[in-house]
Amino acid sequence: MNLWNEISLTTWETAVLTVCLWFLCYGLNVPVRAWQMWRNAATHEVLERVTVVRKSPRQPRSWTAMLRGLYVSLVLLGLMRIGVRWEANLLVRAEYESLMLDALLGAVIGAVVSGLLWLFYRTSKTVHVLELHFDREGVTIYPVRQNLLAGQGIYETRVQWKDCYGYWVFKGYFVLAMRPIGQVEQFGGSKLEQIEPILYRLGVRKLVSYDMREAGELSQSQLLALNDRVQKMADEVIAGYAAECAMLGVQICADVEQRHEEEQFSVLVLRSVVAGETVSDIEWLLWGEDGKTLETLGLADDRLYEGIDERVASLLEARQQEIGQDVPQVLYQ
């Protein structure tokens, strides 16, 4: 009696086995990821959920991979056929041929069903959506699952705020600085503008004033919006120093200038003007692009206000030293 006779799988049993093998390799990613999220929600009070859509990488050799899989399957069937002992009895040989046909037909049916399941799997959130769950103690990260169940690593990454002392932004990622040394890089993509205020509210401070981005990542309208935001903030700060300016006989002006040299960049220019002439000025880079990278000022409103306030105060102090008057105490309040 040969091995295939001992197994004696019908067509439908072989098809079910094929689908089960696919589910164990890929499909199980969906329920396990959902269970991990449920368990996290049960153990932590999730304050914010951010979903980041990640496009699947292009697979130019997908058809090649399918043909390779078909080739391997046919080779295995051929080896099975050669390795089984042939009986002289024609009836036994016919039965064996029937079993082989059932096995092949079952594998084809299972492959078709698995292919349909694969289409749904490739369009699911498990494959395309990165999940970030923020709570008061930390953030739980659920990466996309695009590969084999046992070949992609852990389902979730947990970062505790007590082990993190700040972050910065680099080319679509927010990088969490960990104690005593190390970092966790996490993709944020277009949701960085939503993620940063959440980190700020949870007490995770920004360590670097400038965000490094890919060239062209922000549109011209977004860069102009940054210019307008800084201009408005500078006008508010200067208005708060009206009494000091009058005391020192100086006028503080703020202008955002966009320049085109070897690089394209924008600066905030703060000037102290006396009798219509500029006596001193300070420039502060807002953003700059060199064709490959884009640096943008990424401070929150309170830190941006402090930065402008320090520069205006330094202009007034320089004017005070120039005319030899005492510095008004209000400058240091």
Structure write-up:
By secondary structure, the chain is an alpha+beta fold. It is 47% helix and 25% strand. It folds into 3 domains: 103 residues; 67 residues; 113 residues, no CATH class. α2 runs parallel beside α5 and α8 crosses α10. The radius of gyration is 33 Å and the shape is elongated. 16% of the residues are buried.
Write the topology of this structure.
Elements: H1 3-7, H2 11-27, H3 29-43, E1 48-53, H4 62-83, H5 90-122, H6 125-128, E2 129-134, E3 138-142, E4 157-160, E5 164-170, E6 173-178, E7 183-187, H7 192-201, E8 210-214, H8 220-239, H9 242-248, E9 251-260, E10 264-274, E11 277-289, E12 293-297, H10 301-323
Antiparallel strand pairs: 1-2, 2-3, 3-4, 5-6, 6-7, 8-12, 9-10, 10-11, 11-12
Attribute tags:
single chain, 333 residues, alpha+beta, 3 domains, five-stranded antiparallel beta sheet, 10 helices, 12 strands, 25% strand, disordered N terminus, membrane, transmembrane helix
Largest sheet data: 5 strands, antiparallel
- The assigned structural class equals alpha+beta
| Beta-strand residue fraction | 15-25%
What is the overall silhouette? Answer: elongated
N-end to C-end Cα span: 96 Å
Q: Average pLDDT across residues?
A: 79
Transmembrane segments: 12-30, 65-83, 103-121
Keywords: Membrane, Transmembrane, Transmembrane helix
Brief summary:
By secondary structure, the chain is an alpha+beta fold. The protein is 47% helix and 25% strand. It folds into 3 domains: 36-56 and 126-207; 59-125; 211-323, no CATH class.
